[in-house]
């Protein structure tokens, strides 16, 4: 039986996907107003699909209304504290559950594929760029998802979407890029070798064992977004 041809995406869907990609990869500042007319001109569409796409992005939590317009969601410092705490909890739980339950094992093949990707980053170092946050998120999503609980993965994806507008500015320096690549490789190698307690310690260090350390990084990133206003 032949596979029926896929219907082309609607203009609303195309605009939604394009805007979401721009928002999630640092190509739109949290202080750039999402004006319907300008977006419509850029994507060569009418304002109706733009309006519908923006409404969907607002429902997703990626866009918020402030100062009389729509902007990329930017959490307050208080919101960041709670979201970072949840992120750390979800990240660690992926390995903790594999340590606690003998019948839970990580998907080694998926992790080896992800590890190869990070070997590539190590050997061909990317230029510091805010969009690198998407690479970081993919690593952590794969690490959690490979532990076999899709609910943890789904929750982590939601948290990441809420803090991305701040976290993406953490990848504008060589030292942060180097640390991220090195630590990701270390964590994945430990999990692949089934050295889970050591992997948990490495992950805890990576995401920030102390809430104070995590929030200091977040505060610096938030301050940088304000400087770029």
Automatic annotation (TrEMBL):
Q: Is-annotated flag, keyword Transcription?
A: yes
Q: Where does the HTH gntR-type domain lie?
A: 9-77
Which GO MF terms does the UniProt record name?
DNA binding; DNA-binding transcription factor activity
- This protein's source sits in the domain of life called Bacteria
InterPro entries registered for this protein in UniProt: GntR_C, TF_FadR/GntR_C, Tscrpt_reg_HTH_GntR, WH-like_DNA-bd_sf, WH_DNA-bd_sf
Swiss-Prot/TrEMBL keywords: DNA-binding, Transcription, Transcription regulation
Q: What is this protein called in UniProt?
A: Transcriptional regulator, GntR family
- Name the species this protein comes from: Sanguibacter keddieii (strain ATCC 51767 / DSM 10542 / NCFB 3025 / ST-74)
Read off the lineage from the record. Answer: Bacteria, Bacillati, Actinomycetota, Actinomycetes, Micrococcales
